[in-house]
Design brief:
Elements (H helix, E strand, L loop, with lengths): L7 E5 L5 H17 L10 E11 L2 E6 L9 H28 L2 H13 L13 E6 L2 E6 L11 E6 L3 E4 L8 E5 L12 E3 L4 E3 L5 E5 L5 E3 L7
Antiparallel strand pairs: 1-11, 2-3, 2-6, 4-5, 7-12, 8-11, 9-10, 9-12
Helix pairs in contact: 1-2
């Protein structure tokens, strides 16, 4: 039976500038280097940035934790600078998604944020802008009514991450992702699949995707050279 329901959105050639995309690769690598791996039982790395709900023994909304002690001014400055770059990356990706994804996906995120009174990814700063280096220059993007938005509160960066077939229970009804770098050969792994519908999405650099978290899905193992 054809229900006309959207179950998967895939957009290739998503980020319009190659230098911008390559800069985002470096930011992702930095995040997984300095932030805690949240799925240590799975292959690869998956690390939070932006806000999290804290630990199970101390639940509270706070910035994602570094995996090292921030016990010097130099380390604290590096963490703050990285958070600014991560916010800028997420801000650009989110606003591109707003312009290209079906409106119901964007509305799902914004409705969840509003209904639960969750802060957007402001990195605990008072201003409502985000900054990212474009063409070698820091560019600040202002947000406001009928303009750009700060990204949703929480995001994750991943490198060579894979997970078995599973479902998830989330506050919102869609999961969105942006792949800034992927293997050229799909036989090397990293294939996202939607098991509930028998769909496999071949990996490709510069791809954005959205799917329902309650549908069975997963990512195949990467072939790694020892």
């Amino acid at each position: 039976m054809d229900s006309k329901e959207t179950v998967l959105v895939v957009l290739r050639d998503f980020i319009p500038d190659e230098d911008l995309r390559k800069s985002m690769i470096n930011v992702c690598r930095e995040i997984v280097t300095y932030h805690r791996d949240d799925r240590r039982e799975d292959p690869g790395m998956l690390s939070h940035f932006g806000y999290t709900c804290g630990s199970r023994h101390d639940p509270q909304i706070r910035l994602a934790a570094a995996c090292i002690k921030l016990d010097t001014d130099e380390k604290k400055l590096r963490e703050a600078d990285m958070n600014d770059r991560a916010q800028g990356m997420a801000g650009i990706v989110w606003n591109l998604m707003r312009s290209k994804f079906p409106p119901e996906i964007v509305a799902d995120y914004n409705d969840t944020i509003r209904e639960n009174d969750i802060p957007r990814m402001d990195m605990m700063r008072d201003d409502q802008s985000f900054t990212f280096k474009v063409g070698g220059e820091d560019v600040t993007f202002d947000t406001g009514e009928n303009g750009l938005e700060l990204p949703p509160p929480s995001a994750m960066a991943a490198v060579h991450y894979a997970r078995y077939t599973h479902t998830e229970s989330n506050g919102n009804s869609w999961i969105v992702a942006c792949t800034v770098n992927a293997p050229d050969d799909y036989t090397k792994g990293g294939n996202f699949y939607l098991a509930s519908y028998g769909i496999m999405m071949l990996p490709a650099t510069n791809t954005a995707a959205a799917w329902r978290p309650w549908h069975f899905h997963g990512t195949t193992l990467y072939e790694m050279t020892p």
